[in-house]
Amino acid sequence: MASENRTPEPAWLDQVKFDANGLVPAIAVDAERGDVLMMAWMNRETLRMTLETGTMTYWSRSRREVWVKGLTSGNLQRVVEARLDCDGDALLFKVRQEGAAVACHTGHRSCFYRAFENGAWREPASDA
Fold first, then answer.
1. Which residues are registered as beta bridge partners of 25?
2. Hey, what CATH class is 21-122 in?
3. Where are the domains of the chain?
4. What pLDDT digit, counting tens, does each position of 24-69 carry?
5. Which residues of 28-43 are buried (b: 16+ CB within 10 A; e: fewer)?
6. Whole-prediction pTM
7. CA 13, CA 22: separation in Å to the nearest integer?
């Protein structure tokens, strides 16, 4: 039986507490404006890829595959800063949004474009 030539995982990766599905929430914030752009999931592989390449890489739960944000749309997210919360179970990334500067697949700048007003979720006239 041949031994596998695997690169050992870095110690910093063991400080992240992944859930029972091997995932951790990752929040992307605009590095300049401070706006929350989106929340997605990462596993060990995508977190490592993100920090090694500097490009936000997530785990798509619906497609069950690695997802490099903006690879097809051109709306890449470049890591400016990465933070781990006090419990080690959530990640915060300050990013530079490239391309059309939209993070949401709907074409909005942020995935959090709807606000609860008067008993309903409403879209603002503009989220620029």
1. 41
2. alpha beta
3. 21-122
4. 999 999 999 999 999 999 999 999 999 999 999 999 999 999 999 9
5. bbbbeeeeebbebbbb
6. 0.87
7. 12
